Amino acid sequence: MIDFINKLKKNSYVIDQFLDKHLPIGDSLNSKLFEAMRYSSINSGKKIRAFLVIESGKFLGSINNQEISKSKYDELVVVASAIEAIHTYSLIHDDLPAMDNSSTRRGKPSNHVKYDMHTAILAGDALLSWAFQIISDQNLIKDSMQRSEICFALAKAIGPYGMVGGQQADMDLNNKSSLSLDEIEWIQSHKTGVLISSCSHVASILLNVNDKQRDKIISYASNIGLAFQIADDLLDKDGDETVMGKPIKQDDKNETPNFVTILGRDKATKRALEASNSAISTIENFGYDIENLVSLAKYTVNRNH
Prior knowledge:
Radius of gyration: 19 Å
CATH class: Mainly Alpha
Order of helices and strands: HHHHEEHHHHHHHHHHH
Helix content: over 70%
Number of domains: 1
Number of strands: 2
CATH architecture: Orthogonal Bundle
Number of helices: 15
Structural class: mainly alpha
Oligomer: single chain
Shape: globular
Distance between the termini: 14 Å
CATH topology: Farnesyl Diphosphate Synthase
């Protein structure tokens, strides 16, 4: 596990370098916005989604005997960084008083606490726009069709039929204790899972793989997303706030139903392990180097933050 943590850290360093180089900076009238964007993005979080983009690309390359060139790796880093910007935007907005009302994130004050409400909202908006700006940049991703397909896949994943739609349902159904397991799974697959599965989807576009390979790696990532969300629900219940870097028992505070409230701790833990194992079984028959993707599946349910 220590070896895998070190791999995550190395990946985070690469993504942080890209973000530091390409996120806006300056002393113009909107410099506070730039500062807020960088504050929540750089040197923050584990960047698991970025890791999944890059490792999915490496895996898909290996099963097609396709060596990942420096230029292709750089394109994977571009898309991975864009997804991290999208994820960060969602966290900034999620922490706002109108949403989860969380004062800390990733071990430091939330964006709206560090700055102010309007800056946090605009920083989130700006990160979302910036993500599509860099994906659309022909100097960063060469193939115009791939740029278009990645933009479409991500827009669909995070819009009204995906992440934002899931967040809407999550907020609307607060205080509703009678939610079914199917409803909880629908909400979390949209709110959390769809962005995670899109990490492997965009990698499959960049590697130009066939439909079967694309569907397999997306299935892997979908299971990762489910396992990740259940583990998050368990950590929100029993995690260590100082380790996690954010408040715990937020779902209890907001009376938000989740996998633990519906299934109980034991069954929720079992369901997370099943999803993790399903992710592994999806890719293990390819017979290629799957060490990092297997480690990610195991880490998803064995992490402490």
